[in-house]
Specification:
This protein is mostly helical. It is built from eight helices and no strands. 26% of the residues are buried.
């Protein structure tokens, strides 16, 4: 155990266990050359997290596309359903550029969360477009309600005092609003342009 003076002065030389700990650390590093100490992990966390996301994000998006293809059995409808996600990503990028904020690993976490949330809006919008010829009821209220529920869930992060929480909540909030606009306007316009309303009832 160390005395208060030694701790205050950061004097580790008298620590009888320090040599043993250093030997154990050297032995562990020799056996596991790819391992990192706790300070190294903390310093390299953004880099390591970005490396993990480099395969996690494409995998998540790919699995979502496969699920949409199984559901729609139509490539165009499946791609249209992920359009809100890309519009949400665009909104986040514009917001970061205007605010002069960096694109960090918290932003990547927010975009990964947005990927799952925004596809719901895309499915609602595509299904509405397909069915409105035979049943002209409107589903905009459902989209808006879903987005409002998500926004209310994210709002505490945006209002938090800690900058880390705000860095996560801000991009997620902007992305949700962008995804909502994509579901309300971009998907119907794109499908009308590509297929035309006359084909909606048969698809």
């Amino acid at each position: 155990q160390k005395t208060a003076y030694e701790i205050k002065e950061c004097d580790w030389s008298s620590d009888v266990c320090s040599s043993d700990l250093m030997e154990q650390a050297a032995e562990a590093r020799a056996r596991f050359p790819d391992s990192f100490s706790l300070p190294e992990v903390a310093a390299r966390f953004p880099e390591l997290f970005a490396a993990e996301l480099s395969w996690m994000a494409p995998l998540a998006l790919g699995l979502i596309l496969v699920l949409l293809l199984i559901y729609y059995r139509n490539v165009l409808f499946s791609l249209a359903a992920v359009l809100p996600f890309f519009i949400g990503v665009g909104a986040v990028v514009v917001e970061l550029l205007l605010a002069g904020e960096p694109f960090n690993f918290l932003t990547m976490i927010a975009l990964l969360m947005l990927c799952g949330l925004s596809v719901d809006y895309g499915v609602f919008a595509v299904d509405q477009w397909r069915r409105r010829v035979a049943r002209p009821e409107r589903l905009e209220s459902a989209l808006i309600f879903c987005c409002l529920a998500s926004v209310l869930g994210v709002a505490p992060l945006v209002l938090a005092k800690h900058p880390v929480l705000r860095s996560l909540g801000g991009p997620l909030l902007i992305g949700l609003i962008g995804a909502l606009l994509g579901g309300l306007f971009a998907i119907p316009a794109a499908l009308d342009l590509m297929l035309g309303r006359r084909d909606a009832a048969s698809l």
